[in-house]
Write a structure and sequence with these properties.
The complex is a heterodimer of chains A (247) and B (222). Chain A has helices at residues 42-49, 74-78, 96-106, 112-125, 141-154, 171-184, 197-203, 221-226, 231-244, and strands at 4-13, 16-26, 31-35, 57-62, 65-66, 81-84, 159-163, 189-193, 206-211, 214-219. With 247 residues, chain A is α/β, with parallel strands linked by helices. Chain A has a six-stranded mixed sheet, sandwiched between helices. The longest helix of chain A has 14 residues, at 112-125. Chain B has 222 residues and is mainly α. Helix content of chain B is 76%, strand content 0%. In chain B, α2 (10-38) crosses α8 (138-151) and α2 packs antiparallel against α9 (163-174). The longest helix of chain B is centred in the last third of the chain and has 30 residues, at 177-206. The chains are: A alpha/beta (247), B mainly alpha (222).
Chain lengths: 247, 222
């Protein structure tokens, strides 16, 4: 049994079918990167996994529990699935520290002082202990995203879903966020939707290439970049490496 | 000026009405705003109907119905009770609209971020949405407070002995309309100035660091 099992997920908005049967697994502490052109349903897939936007058909299992079963307590399960947003979505009225500790206090019902301690540790882990008392509006984009990662980490998740975590960042700030993610690789499972091919190549255990709501091909970075089986994969990776520069 | 003590007898009544109506109106407003934004269809319709009725009819007519009308079906209130009920219900409708505007001004992703942490919808509303929405509704709320303080004066029409009622009484006995009402105007002005200053201080205290001036949301115009 795999830690996360995604089985034949279908999702439509109106007449438009976004996901046409997606299946894959993620094991403990594994890093999987989903790549593909915009509008191929990558973000939708992440929302189908944590049931923010439940799929029309198919199953999602985490630690042997079926998330797609309507009778499951999804609030309990979501504590085990961290989520990092493209546009951060930090809580604007709270300090960086409280952004990280609020889930511990309100959801895990951990004592306030203890939650603070834990939150401070997580902020240290992403290199932001000095910014603990600042509000989101006082932070740079890269700092905001690192707070977002700390917020997800604090809940001790089995897996963290990253929805294009660096797409809204200035180029010089992307590195800080990717560095934090690299350190996490191998410690917590990560499912990362990104256009950062360098990250995919160097950090991923497996790369999943999606297009038109389907998985076209998946494999290790070496296999995908050196010997892609599908013509479409070759074409996409060729285009992006011209665009983003060869590593 | 020997009638000043008599005049001031109306002050506690005016202040009582203002603070009672702003507080009860706030509780009602919050309830109706939440009901309208997050409630199921039926609740949402009911809330909308309440808001439309109380914002779409004159306050004076509402007071007349409560004070003079309801006895016809056996419900009798004293003048002050009728005033407290009428002002609260009316202010509740306006405050609900201000709060609804503020709640809807908070990006929907704030709620999504709360839910991804495992918060329930209720927890997200309480710990994420409302603290932000209430902050941005302060300017509108401050306006409502000032408005209420002044508009409590219409309760003279249902025989409540507030500041304006006392003034009318004194003026008609002494025929000194000009002086009496100038003094009354100054008393109202003093209170509105003090109250808006207090709310201003509260707003500055609560301002989120790094965020600029708060938005004004659909102020009551008259």
């Amino acid at each position: 049994m795999h830690m996360l099992e995604v089985k034949d997920i279908h999702k439509s908005y109106g007449a438009c079918e976004i996901l046409k049967g997606i299946s894959f697994n993620v094991d403990k502490a594994e890093t999987k990167v989903i790549i593909g052109a915009s509008g191929t349903g990558k973000s939708t897939l992440l929302k189908c996994i944590n049931q923010l936007d439940p799929p029309d058909k198919g199953e999602v299992w985490l630690d042997g529990e079926e998330l797609t079963n309507p009778s499951v307590d999804i609030n309990r399960i979501r504590q085990k699935i961290g989520f990092v947003f493209q546009d951060f979505n930090l809580f604007n009225h709270l300090t960086a520290l409280r952004n990280v500790s609020i889930g511990l206090e309100k959801v895990k019902k951990i004592d306030k002082e203890e939650a603070r301690e834990r939150a401070l540790q997580e902020l240290k882990r992403v290199g932001l202990e000095k910014q603990a008392s600042q509000h989101p509006a006082q932070l740079s984009g890269g700092q905001k995203q690192r707070v977002g990662i700390a917020r997800a980490l604090a809940m001790d998740p089995d897996i963290i879903l990253f929805d294009e975590p660096t797409s809204a960042l200035d180029p010089e700030l992307i590195g800080d966020v990717l560095d934090v993610m690299k350190v996490l690789a191998g410690k917590v499972a990560m499912l990362v939707v990104t256009h950062e091919m360098g990250f995919a190549r160097n950090v991923a255990d497996e790369i999943i290439f999606m297009e038109g709501g389907k998985i076209i091909e998946s494999g290790t970075p070496n296999q995908m970049f050196q010997h892609p089986k599908m013509e479409r994969t070759k074409e996409f990776l060729g285009k992006t490496s011209t665009l983003y520069g060869q590593e | 000026m020997k009638s000043l003590p008599e005049l001031l007898e109306g002050v506690p009544v005016t202040l009582l009405l203002t603070f009672f109506a702003i507080s009860v109106g706030f509780a009602l407003g919050l309830l109706f705003a939440l009901g309208r934004v997050y409630g199921h269809k039926l609740i949402s319709y009911f809330c909308t109907a309440y808001l439309e009725v109380f914002r779409g009819t004159p306050l004076l007519v509402q007071l007349f119905i409560i004070y003079y009308g309801l006895p016809a079906i056996g419900i009798i209130f004293s003048p002050i009770q009728a005033a407290m009920i009428g002002l609260s219900l009316n202010s509740g409708a306006y405050q609900a609209e201000y709060l609804r505007g503020s709640i809807q001004a908070i990006p929907s992703n704030q709620m999504v971020a709360g839910r991804t942490l495992g918060m329930t919808k209720f927890q997200s509303i309480r710990t994420i949405i409302l603290p932000q929405a209430l902050r941005i509704s302060i300017p509108a709320w401050s306006n409502e407070l000032i408005y209420l303080l002044k508009y409590t004066s219409i309760v003279v029409y249902i025989q409540v002995r507030d500041l304006t009622f006392q003034a009318k009484d004194i003026a008609s006995h002494s025929s000194r309309y000009f002086e009496t009402f100038i003094v009354v105007a100054l008393i109202y002005l003093l209170f509105t100035a003090v109250l808006s200053e207090i709310v201003d201080i509260i707003e500055k205290r609560l301002r989120i660091p790094g965020v600029g001036v708060t938005n004004k949301v659909g102020l009551r115009t008259f």
